[in-house]
Amino acid sequence: MIKQVLLISGIFIFLAIQPLSAQIITDNQRVEEQLLASTKQLNQFFSRFNGEEDTRGREFEPDDRQYRNSRLRKRYLSILFDEENAGFSESLFQEFVDRVTSDADPVFLSLRSDNWFAVVNTTFAYKGKSVPLTLYMQIQQEGLGYEWVISDLSFEPYKSLFNKQRGQTKEFLHPMSHELDFMNLRKAMVKNGSPESYTLADFKPDFLTLFLYEVKMGHLVFETVNRVNFHFFTVDGWYFSLSNFNRPGYNTGWLISDLLKINAQQKQDLLKLLYDKN
Amino acid sequence: MNRRYNQILAVALLTVLTAFSAVAQNAVDPNREKAIDSLALEKVRDLGKYIKIIGNKNTPYTEATRVMDRAEELFAPGSEMGVSSLAKEEIEYYKVREYFRRLMALNYDKVTIEWYDIHYISKLERQPDGRYVGVVTIYQKFEGRNGDKLAYKDTTKKDITIYVEKKETQIAGRTIEFWDVILGDIRVSETTI
Fold this sequence. Notes:
The complex is a heterodimer.
Chain A: H1 2-16, H2 27-37, H3 42-50, H4 70-79, H5 90-100, E1 116-126, E2 129-142, E3 145-154, H6 156-161, H7 185-188, H8 207-217, E4 220-232, E5 238-245, E6 253-261, H9 264-274
Antiparallel strand pairs in A: 1-2, 1-4, 2-3, 4-5, 5-6
Helix pairs in contact in A: 1-4
Chain B: H1 2-26, H2 30-55, H3 61-73, E1 80-84, E2 92-95, H4 96-104, E3 110-121, E4 125-126, E5 132-146, E6 149-171, E7 174-190
Parallel strand pairs in B: 1-7
Antiparallel strand pairs in B: 1-2, 3-5, 4-5, 5-6, 6-7
């Protein structure tokens, strides 16, 4: 059913861009209609989500009666979901659309919205090999404008590097070490050892600092970006993610690929999962 | 003492007002933004024309080199092209000049480059240094032929960075302010179309 709704909406867009006179559709026209329907930039996702542009991507003036019109937004929202792999029910989809287009408390998105971030899957050269490394990026205000910054990262070699043991089996500096001028540090601080064993109980490694150090030292060298996704917790009680769908057809570009209704605990669990902190 | 204090206060107030006025002047009003969009599109179309000439096998080497110089002038220094294909999703990075040279050296008898009549211009966002930045998306159709045979074809999406900056010039002794547009990095991705 959700696919039918999406299909009908797709047809709406399709019809909206047709000239009134009947004509034979050439290959070029077909391609251009598909390109027009595609959500080509995240910026366009925001504009369609908010109902701030027409079907040809032209911005409405704020005093235009179509600007942020909730009927227009509902039509746009139906084409902003990935219709091929949508794993959520029609009722969930409808509830979300009703929530963000409600007359009393509508939700609009922009680059400056709170609680969203980008996950950037990259490849770096590390110790002679190309290895995957995930960067978590956020928009922040700085100087006269805004900038994207790295807020965190996930890197497999770091995760196992500080696997600190606790309790009876861990390595330690015995409690009388001070009487020997801590001469046993010599045996603790060794290459390929477990120096993290000799830290405070609540020690948490700061991977971002480590990453920056290794980039500065030339140990980690950027190679390429493989994939980008965006994750939104901007709508209270909801989570959705955006992926870029590069495929033939009218349902392409930046689309909502996941949609979940979440409570506060589920939000924390999901954030842990997305940030690879489990 | 009081007079001196008042003087300092007046100077401080004037400085703040000047700063505020500078910030206000630097904002892009919506009507001006449309004019900037047109200017950006003009530059993107110029780039399109230059790419067609550089890629055309009938263009003499000296002419292609001259056009490459002109095309390079459209860009901010250090701009790069990040290219990916359907077969290889990792992005490969080329300096603009290197990208043009590779385009010129393609091993086809005939190269046809056309542009779809579709473009999308993002809103302009201000960056920390006060300049504005936006992205223009366009689509390019490429065909390479050897003899009469179609050897390769693709359609690529080009997301082109545009930087917008307020500049000043002197005309007949008067200072005139204007908005200038310069191109930046371009992300080139092959589409399935």
